[in-house]
Amino acid sequence: MPHQKNFLLNRLEPALLARIVPHLSVVELGHSDVLAETHERIEKVYFPHSGIISCVVELAGGGAIESGMIGNDGEFGASQALDDKVSLNHVVTQVGGVASVISSDRIREVADELPAFRGLLVKYEQFFLAQVQQTAACNAVHNIPARMCKWLLRMNDLVGDELPLTQEFLAQMIGVRRTSVTDVAGELQKAGMIKYSRGRIRILDLEQIKAWACECHEDVRSHHRRIFSSNE
Question: What whole-number distance in Å separates Cα of residue 97 and Cα of residue 52?
Fold first, then answer.
């Protein structure tokens, strides 16, 4: 069943998933597809099978920074849909992929009928909040090479070692100028850790990237393990 390529949907008991499947459809998400705008009402909830969704905080002066990254380990839009709220961020597909989609109205009905499904969505919201908090601390304290390596590790977890990633977007992800990203990318490439050309980064030495990265990536993974250690 294609929907089980998403961690959360795969975690459901087969009987529960079978009750949700009639309300799900599978869609292709292209690079840079906008899924929501800041203060826009959420109409659809996405459960990625592949690719990466980015939640981006836009600043009045024209800058922006990524606050959270969603892959096949999560979903976008459920917490907002359940409370009939709007998106707090600009949400865009950073890496194209495939996702299961359900309407916001329908997910509210299903979550009311199936407490186990609602509980799973609440657990993911806990994890995502932990990721956002870790990102805020990381951006405030850690240097640019450590932060860049952290994001490369997170992206590697979600899509592998071939990353369709421009320097502009990478700069936005870690909240620095493009020139800083260019300098650090050159440093990583010179050290044999990555190969960068024409908007693509290939990870060559994952262990060395882990050595350069700050502790935040492993802390986020630890949060995920702890929150989903049981299927209550």
Answer: 7
Select from 35, 108, 20, 115 the least CA-distant residue to 70.
35
Domains of the chain: 2-116 (2.60.120.10), 143-213 (1.10.10.10)
pTM for the full predicted model? 0.92
DSSP string for residues in 149-170: HHHHHHHHHHH-SEEE--HHHH
What pLDDT, on the 0 to 100 scale, is given for residue 88? 87
* pLDDT bracket for residue 5 (50, 70, 90): very high
Whether residue 11 has pLDDT greater than 70 = yes
Interval 148-158: pLDDT, tens: 999 999 999 99
Core vs surface per residue 201-231: b (16+ CB within 10 A) or e: bebeeeebbeebbbebbeebeebbeeebeee
Between CA 103 and CA 173 the distance in angstroms is 28
